[in-house]
Amino acid sequence: MGLSLTACLPQDYAEGVFVGRAQGSDGPHVIVLRDGRITDITGLASTVSGAVARRVFSGGDDLGPIEGGLPHDWALLSPIDLQCVKACGVTFAVSAIERVIEERARGDASAAVAIRQGLEETVGAGIRAVVPGSEEAMALKAALIEQGMWSQYLEVAIGPDAEVFSKSPVLSTVGHGALIGVRSDSSWNNPEPEVVLVCDAAGEVVGATLGNDVNLRDFEGRSALLLSKAKDNTASCAIGPFIRLFDDRFGIDDVRGAEVELVVEGTDNFRMEGTNRMTEISRDPLELVRQTMSEHSYPDGFVLFCGTLFAPVQDRDEPGSGFTHKVGDVVTIRSERLGALTNTVTTSRDAPKWTVGIAEFMRNLAARGLVEKA
């Protein structure tokens, strides 16, 4: 038996169609799971981006039953390749409050407790009750400005414009089972369990998967201008295990109602659990896609992290110190219809270096006679 897949797939995997990537001895392969079988469609579509663009999700070489796993010398990769990796932040009221806390604490975790209590009492109920960009939201903004409570994070939480940023370069994401990196000089950070939408060049959502948008609370808390430095580091973006394609059994309404569970298990016997409920998102997922596409084109498609309401406040060490990662933490992000994404924490400094960029990827496809199928 090869590399097991059933442990990371949802229980109803036999009813869905899943697209992913796996590393073989000759390079990456595009694989499809459907009707209980694994097929290698690389000879038909040598990139996931191309498979999505041309809707090539059938045919290819049969690799056997899903229960038999992948060939023994193959390794699962992130299920995307040439797509741009975009993300939306502060899309939940709870996370908005936590971003304001980071800002006011200047990245100091020990100062967060008192600030959190005051903000929740004065801001929490208001931002949960309004629709972003509405007249009521603008009235709340005016009131908060008058009280000296306004923040750039509240602007993207309840204002007309969502926060949309580039999370990770093309081909730099890691997949299920890989090490995930946190900057070695960060002392306050956390995982971010999210649903990730997979879109074609026209902005049509064709499926969804799971992602971990690692967050450095100390860096971003010191200055929002450090967002890119906080978000984009070696191995800091995990996606997987597979893209579940939309069909008559799974669609955007399942995304809207998804619950994304998180478990962190440390080598120090620490355990933390949390849940990201998509029903509590402030902006509809399709509105996030629309804003991402409004003034930008993505010829190879894009994936979009939808944000999370999960912001851990559980103390790990001293009281009031909050949560931060330690090397060796095992992070599992799971959702009933999408499966499970598991990664082990290391530092971005010590994570395997990212070496296969676009040029190397194209050279590999060319050597295998697959460029025209991209």
Automatic annotation (TrEMBL):
Q: Record's Pfam families? A: FAA_hydrolase
Molecular function terms from GO: hydrolase activity; metal ion binding
Q: Could you mention a single GO BP entry for this protein? A: small molecule metabolic process
Residue ranges occupied by any Fumarylacetoacetase-like C-terminal domain in the UniProt entry? 200-345
Keywords of this protein's UniProt record, alphabetized? Hydrolase, Metal-binding
Q: Which InterPro entries match?
A: FAH (IPR051121), Fumarylacetoacetase-like_C (IPR011234), Fumarylacetoacetase_C_sf (IPR036663)
* Coiled-coil regions, chain positions: none
**Record-stated family:** Belongs to the FAH family.
Q: What is this protein called?
A: Fumarylacetoacetate (FAA) hydrolase family protein
Lineage start:
Bacteria, Pseudomonadati, Pseudomonadota, Alphaproteobacteria, Sphingomonadales
